[in-house]
Structures are given as C-alpha cells and as structure tokens.
Specification:
Length: about 300
C-alpha cells in the first residue's frame, strides 16, 4: 500500500508498506484522511517520552476512514500501521461514527487538538460557569478550539493571546472577549496586559506554549487559578519563582490526551461533533496529498497555524 514510511528518526518518506490484516479485536480502516500533529513529529524524532517508534513503520495517530461502508474517526492505530497510509489497523473501540455534516478535515481537527482543548478545560481544570479563561497560543489550531470550547462550556470572559493579527480577529469571531499580542514584551508588560484584558481575576489558563507567556500568565492569575500545561511551542522550560505560585495559591496541572480514559475521550469528541454539525465549532484545515508528506512535515514543524491533513 502507499504510505508515509519512517525508517530512521526524523521525517518519513513517501513509499510502499505492507498492508495490515485484521486481527482479534482489531479492524482494518480504509483511510480517507490522516492528521499531522506536533506529537507525530516528536514521536518520529524519538523525543516523545515513553513512545519509541518502530523502524520501519507508518506514523500517524489519528485519521478518518471507512469500516464496513461507514465513515469513522479513529485514533491510536496499532503499530507499525499508523494513519498516514491507505490502510490502518485499529481497535474498534477507538473509532467513532461521523455525521455527514462534519467533513473529514474538521473531524480530524476535533481529534487530537480538539480533545486537548475541550478536556483541558472540562476534565482537567474543571471549568466553572462564569469563570475567566486565558488561552495562550490562541492563534493556533488547539488555541482557537480552546477559545470556542471555553465559550461552549460556560466561561464568563475569554482572553485570547497570540502573535498573529489575522488570528486575533479570528479569535474574536470565535468567542474571545479580549485579545493580547504576545509580542508586546515579556515580564511586567505582558502581566499588565493580561490583567487589563481579563478585567479582573484569571481563573483558568490553557497553555500549549509555555515559556515567558506562561510565566506572565501565572503572575497575572487570580486566587486558586488553574494553569493547564499542554505543550511547549514557545520554550521547553521557564524559571519559575515560588512566589508566583504562592501569591495566588495557583496550581499547575499537566495535561495529555493519553491520560484521559477512552470513554471520556469518546464522550468529549461526540459532544464536539454535535457542536461542529450545528456550525458553532470549527477549525482551519489545510489538505495535502500523502505523496507530499515531507513538505507537510516541514510545514508542521514551522507552526502552520492550520490543521494539516494528509489524503492518500
């Protein structure tokens, strides 16, 4: 079968790979589209903790395909048969039927990225109605979905922080009440900007970027704030003074989709599908032929600000 093939740490190449066969409890999916995520790049590079790729193998953690004539979203395919190929091997419980009103690209965007946005708020931060949410990296796919999720889950005020002017406008259209330019500076200037944009206490921070913006967000947070750490697109580390946590009795909560029970992930994904079908949850999607996997890989590594989807 045609596939993206990983033979060493780094980027895969377009080529041929043996097709999977059905196995007990596992089904073969005819892949229509495969998602490309930052985690795929980290896993392929051998830098994602606890997940070492096989060589050779097909990368890809999620996709949309057909099983018995029905269109489904699937995640967690069985190695070495990842989603970036014509066929993948998956456990049936890792599939979710898709409504006709949600196309393949949006269905994938709601997967890895959408679940991190939705569940970081609902499952990890335990967002309460009326609370103020600050979304860092709000101009990216995960961030823009977090803005929408915060609104749908009952946030009272939403601050979107990012580095792209067009992205700020989109964040406002998607439900943000205020926006902050992360390029205005670091330290005190950014702390003040966050506080002014919030117009009061920040209760929850959704953070896929870390670095100086995360430190400023912690310093701007209100009493008992929950800072949910999802990724480190801006920097792998920060120097965090203890006083930044003690001042507001804030909590830093790590988040990974992998730690959420499958049943909770399926329930969250199904809820988002309903919102997407109703036209109130969306994401920017960019399609690439599977044969252009190396170009798409480089684009993702450079932060595309779009959900990149590979089509076999």
């Amino acid at each position: 079968m045609a596939a993206a093939v990983l033979t060493a740490p780094g980027a895969p190449v377009y080529g041929r790979f043996v097709a999977p066969e059905p196995a007990p409890g596992k089904v073969v999916v005819d892949v229509r589209a495969a998602g490309l995520n930052p985690v795929d790049i980290a896993i392929a590079a051998g830098s994602f903790p606890g997940m070492t790729p096989q060589y050779p193998s097909v990368p890809g953690h999620e996709g949309v395909g057909m099983i018995d004539g029905k269109r489904v979203y699937f995640s967690g395919p069985v190695a070495p048969f990842g989603s970036m190929a014509q066929h993948a091997l998956v456990a049936r419980e890792r599939t979710v039927p898709l409504p006709d009103a949600v196309d393949d690209g949006l269905a994938i965007a709601l997967g890895t990225s959408g679940l991190a946005a939705w569940l970081s708020l609902r499952w990890r931060a335990r967002l309460q109605p009326g609370e103020t949410v600050l979304v860092l990296g709000a101009t990216g796919v995960l961030g823009s979905l977090a803005v929408q999720a915060a609104r749908l889950l009952g946030a009272g005020w939403i601050v979107a922080a990012g580095r792209h002017g067009a992205g700020w406008r989109r964040a406002a259209e998607l439900g943000a009440d205020a926006v902050v330019d992360l390029d205005i500076g670091v330290g005190g200037d950014l702390v003040t900007a966050f506080r002014q944009a919030a117009g009061g206490n920040i209760d929850v921070v959704i953070d896929p970027i870390w670095g100086e913006p995360a430190l400023a967000a912690l310093q701007a947070s209100g009493p008992f704030a929950r800072h949910v750490q999802i990724g480190n697109a801006a920097s792998p580390g920060i120097t965090l003074p203890g006083g930044a946590l003690r001042r507001a009795s804030a909590s830093i909560l790590g988040y990974s989709n992998l730690m959420v029970p499958i049943a909770d992930r399926v329930a969250a994904y199904t809820a988002m599908l309903g919102h997407a079908a109703a036209g109130v949850m969306t994401a920017p999607v960019e399609l690439h032929p599977l044969r252009e996997v190396q170009q798409a890989w480089a684009r993702q590594a450079a932060f595309a600000h779009r959900k990149l989807v590979l089509v076999p």
